[in-house]
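Deliverable D4.2, example record:
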Amino acid sequence: VQLQASGGGLVQAGGSLRLSCAASGRTFSFSRYALGWFRQAPGKEREFVARISWTGGSTDYADSVKGRFTISRDNAKKMVYLQMNSLRPEDTAVYYCAATYGGAVTIKPDYWGQGTQVTVSS
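Output generated by the structure prediction step:
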């Protein structure tokens, strides 16, 4: 199973980015996996950002991103997205997608993506 994150970049404060994560793997039943996004800033521990249930019917966000970020998934395309609006310099980090079979994604998921850098300038 591979998770390939993309869409990061450099953006000014107040701007938007959309991260994508593509899942692949011959035996990977994407629709049965809960998905999530985490981030890690320099010198800090990896932290939870957002997650979505395997059905897509439930989402959860870190308080720091509520109202600004939206997680979504497309099971047909085996993709998970993170729409990030009103970006702040403190959102600067490497963003990782993650997948866990069945239950909710936590800081110890079944699979990690490779990360994509998001830099927000002030």
